[in-house]
Amino acid sequence: MADVLLTTTSTEVAVGSTAAAVASSLLAGERYKFASSTACWIRQGTCIKVTFVAKASLVDGETFTLTLGLSKTPTTYEFDVAGDGVKSGNVQINVSAVTTAIQIAGLARTAILAAQTALNVTDNGDGTLTIEAPDIVMSFSETVANGTFAAANQAVPATAGAGSCYVPANTIVDINGDQGPQLGVIQDAVAGKASATRVRSY
Length: 202
Hints:
Blueprint: E1 3-15, E2 20-23, E3 31-36, E4 40-51, E5 63-68, E6 75-80, E7 91-94, H1 101-115, E8 120-123, E9 128-134, E10 138-142, E11 150-153, E12 165-167, E13 173-176, E14 182-186, E15 192-201
Parallel strand pairs: 6-7
Antiparallel strand pairs: 1-15, 2-14, 3-13, 3-15, 4-9, 4-11, 4-12, 4-14, 5-6, 5-10, 8-9
């Protein structure tokens, strides 16, 4: 069988000395060819930025769910506004004694790190959390009625270490969508271009 490049799904970006998302829609079960014009480091996974809201904008019992892997059991986090507990099986985020989105984000970070130890969670100090699942697919869903509460894709952090893979210039490597839908790329102070192209075997 030979690999046929599906060029309509190729994504190319210019990257320099900071992390950039080359692709944020890698499909689970699909293979891709990655290439860069200069030497770089790449890292796969899923990374989202979640924007929280103040307690006044939450309804007791609203939830958000983080699911890891392709068929893993989801973990549901429930906002306890009234301070009277949460539904059986949910992870409690007791917000009854706080008011601001910044405080609620901090409580959510503590709850996530305790319940899902495979995740990296950064409190950005502004009412948002950056949640990263290294080398794995992660999905997010929520039941919060307030539209400000939301999650958006972020570039997966890539460095010369921290689990990144070194790719020499003009070398093609295979990557797998099962290892996470987003691809972070960093080049060491040298500008260039990188691309990820889906392939199909015939």
